[in-house]
Amino acid sequence: MERLLDDSGGQRGTDTRIGGGSCDSSRPEASNRDRGDGPGNPSGGIPATRAGSVKRLTARRWLAVVFSMTMLLLAAIVVCSLIGPTPLDIGEALESSIVPNPQRMILFGIRLPRILLAGLIGGALAGAGVVFQAILRNPLADPYVLGISSGAALGAASGILMNLQQSLVGFSAITVCAFAGALLTIFFVYAIAQSYGRVLTHSLLLTGVIINYVFAALIMLITALVDFTKAREIIFWLMGNLSKTEYNYFTLLAAFGYIFIGSMILLWRSRDLNLLSLGEASASQLGVEVERLKRLAFVATSLITAGAVAEAGPIGFVGLIIPHAMRMLFGPDHRLLFPAAFLGGGIFLIFSDTVARVGIGGSEIPVGVVTALCGGPLFIFLLRRQIRKTG
């Protein structure tokens, strides 16, 4: 499309140590019993630091990390705005003129909104991954573990099958169908996993696995029934991509609104997520309303994930790799880990989508392919490095 335009125009008073810093921190054997994890791993995932090198979280350190990550995010937006299959004259693009300006249209009509959308979706997926790993206490959990992406994919495939072309308040019919499918899946999974007013973690995981298998079978059935063009559209959507025929700043603003609200709610409860990482029994003894926290976290992260998947498809690895990478760099305290992962996820997906835009041989590739090819080796490198550091 760029070429076309160019041619034509916690006991709440816990201390501030990483990992929740609760009064149980001097009793690793108690918290390990609750969690079933090894010692020195308060996040339930990969060990972040040596026992003697845990850094105290201060306001200055929090601000320094968040400010640095924000500057990196802004730098990524600026740099990637200048990169694309079509050469961009930044002076001409910024020039104010009544006459239609192809360079300006490429920058402000295609690249910038797409980059901002990539930053939002990457941040949403990475932040959701942090919270899912905390509430499920599973280092392999990601935003798609409960079947949300499968529900969205089934909704999108159904919309393509019915040949829906209309838009609703600026959102395409396929995006609306995908979001509706994700919402129905959220309520379905929650209803099944709930027992006597409690949300059972193992029930959530098992229900999510079953939903993924069943919905995957239905998607394959739909793909087999439609013609080649629709089958290609379904497969391309399932790969995850940010390519659109046009970009709407209204939908971008709407996406920012609900992702921002959901993220602020999760950041507000980040201290309780630290305590929940010690185990439900320990968190409850320290004053956390565990079931209420799990419900709130489940709903907020699920809605954020549903919106992200509906807009761009199931982009893999972002919600798994970035939380672990940020945990290795900054430690497992969710008060710092969540905003760092959100910003890091945005940076990662912006650069990944830039690679996808440039493509291979002039052809754009799905961003989900790039995140898997780049993210997998990166995660293995970080993991090996951390294993060597922790002995």
3D structure, described in words:
The protein is mainly alpha-helical. The chain has a single domain, classed as ABC transporter involved in vitamin B12 uptake, BtuC, CATH 1.10.3470.10. It has 16 helices and four strands. α5 (102-136) runs parallel beside α10 (249-268) and α14 (318-330) packs parallel to α16. Residues 1-50 are annotated as: Disordered.
Key words describing this protein structure:
single chain, 391 residues, mainly alpha, ABC transporter involved in vitamin B12 uptake, BtuC, two-stranded antiparallel ribbon, two-stranded antiparallel sheet, 4 strands, globular
Describe the largest sheet.
Answer: 2 strands, antiparallel
Specify the CATH architecture: Orthogonal Bundle
Strand content: under 5%
The radius of gyration computed from the alpha-carbon positions, rounded to a whole number of angstroms, is: 22 Å
The CATH class: Mainly Alpha
Oligomer: single chain
Low-confidence stretches: 3-53
**Secondary structural class:** mainly alpha
SSE run: HHHHHHEEHEEHHHHHHHHH
Give the overall shape, derived from the CA principal axes. globular
What is the average of the pLDDT values? Answer: 81
Tally of DSSP β-strands: 4
Domain count: the total is: 1
Number of helices: 16
Q: In percent, how helical is the residue content? A: 55-70%
- Name the CATH homologous superfamily: ABC transporter involved in vitamin B12 uptake, BtuC
